[in-house]
Design brief:
α1 packs parallel to α5. The two termini are 37 Å apart. This protein has an 8-stranded mixed sheet with strand order 6-5-14-15-16-13-18-17, with helices on both faces. The radius of gyration is 21 Å and the shape is globular. The protein has a single domain, classed as 3-Layer(bba) Sandwich (FAD/NAD(P)-binding domain). It contains 14 helices and 20 strands. The protein is of the alpha+beta class.
Length: 396
């Protein structure tokens, strides 16, 4: 029985463990933190992400806990006008085979973690910080900062955007800072005026900035996530920020958007980072997954979905023969690079939709408002409608 060592105990790493053990492997998951836990707020899961979770045996559990969203609602953030909505009920669900949902990151993580703990083929090891890897023709090992080597037949680096495994494998330095800061807060839904409790993921688009909000945790909380292009050049994550600074950055937005922002407390801030797509993230018996392989801005709401897709494709390609691992990793890389690169570029380009001003914003509003529900579904079909997750899905 082949043994796969997975670096990173986040959503992607746990999904990879479930996927490879369903193909007859044993897995050990190395997490650098002292415990397996997930922080953060909401995750949007389009039908493609739920299809991947179905393949991992968790789709029903996620759908039962998630908020099933009725529409993606686009608002002119300056005038407050409703520009367009992409409907997510009847026709959308029939066409793409699943709802569009939002779930608290901790809830999704908990389901993955419980499934891994139930598996006799998965070992979860916390407090294990990876620094690199070694390999030869017969196996691969992860090097830990204390000098220990964790040996296996294969290594999967699922250790995030600053992956130690990527640093050795790709060697492309620090992530790209996008010049955008995102602020996040979560508020109890009872504090939100009833007339603003929309069952929608809502975007308020303004000049050089936009504001997204949606319900999470079964509708008990509202997730607030405004972003501003402020030219930031340093990378930072989870830095507390004064609520007046957040309100000031979005003072140009409509009254309704500002009412919602004013409810936020305990704000934290992140600089947005990603990396340029690379053609190759596999080296023999070592490969990358999720943000370690293809980190992307969150504007396409596909980061978690793409990590789940990676896990499913990788699991489908593997078998119990350890000798085939290098070839199967190469095929996985080839299957996934086109689709993930397209999403990375789509996420970057989305600010051209969210952030224009003046005549450009007016032209955008006219273009979006002229599209029918079917036309909007057509626009996202390649992304939300994928079920096989490989090269064919990238070209649709």
């Amino acid at each position: 029985m082949a043994r796969t060592v997975i670096v990173g105990g986040g959503i992607g790493g746990l999904a990879a463990a479930l996927a490879v053990t369903r193909r007859g492997h044993r897995a050990v998951v190395l997490e650098r933190a002292v415990t397996f836990a997930e922080i953060g707020a909401g995750i949007q899961l389009a039908p493609n992400g739920l299809h991947a979770l179905d393949r991992l045996g968790l789709g029903d559990a996620v759908r039962a806990r998630a908020v099933h969203i009725d529409e993606l609602r686009f608002m002119d953030g300056v005038s407050g006008a409703h520009v367009a909505s992409l409907p997510l009920t009847g026709v959308y669900r029939r066409r793409f085979g699943n709802p569009y949902v939002v779930v608290h990151r901790g809830e999704l993580y908990g389901l993955l973690l419980d499934a891994c703990r139930r598996s006799a083929a998965i070992e979860l090891r916390a407090g294990a910080r990876a620094t690199g890897y070694r390999q030869d023709a017969s196996g691969a090992s992860v090097l830990l900062d204390g000098g220990e080597q964790v040996a296996g037949d294969a290594v999967i680096g699922a250790d995030g955007i600053r992956s130690a495994i990527r640093r050795q494998l790709v060697g492309d330095g620090e992530p790209r800072v996008a010049g955008i800061t995102v602020f996040r807060a979560v508020i109890p839904m009872e504090r939100v005026p009833e007339e603003l409790r929309w069952n929608a993921v809502t975007w308020w688009a303004g000049p050089g900035r936009h504001f997204v909000h949606y319900a999470i945790a079964g509708g008990r909380y509202l997730n607030l996530a405004p972003s501003v292009e402020n030219g930031v050049t340093e990378s930072f994550a989870g830095v507390p920020v004064d609520r007046e600074r957040v309100r000031g950055a979005f003072a140009a937005l409509d009254t309704t958007a500002r009412r919602l922002l004013a409810l936020g407390e305990d704000w934290k801030s992140w600089s947005l980072v990603d990396r340029d797509p690379v053609d190759r993230w596999t080296d023999g018996r070592v490969t990358l997954l999720g943000d370690a392989a293809h980190p992307m801005l969150h504007y396409a709401a596909q980061g978690a979905c793409q990590a789940l897709e990676d896990a499913v494709v990788l699991g489908d390609l593997l078998d119990e023969d350890a000798d085939t691992i290098p070839d199967r990793f190469e095929k996985y890389n080839a299957e996934r690079r086109e689709r993930t690169a397209r999403i990375t570029h789509t996420a970057r380009a989305s600010t051209r939709l969210w952030h224009p001003a003046g005549a450009e914003a007016k032209a955008r509003n006219e273009m979006l408002s002229a599209l029918s529900g079917t036309a909007l579904h057509d626009q996202v079909a390649w992304l939300h409608g994928a079920r096989e997750f490989g090269t064919a899905g990238a070209r649709r």
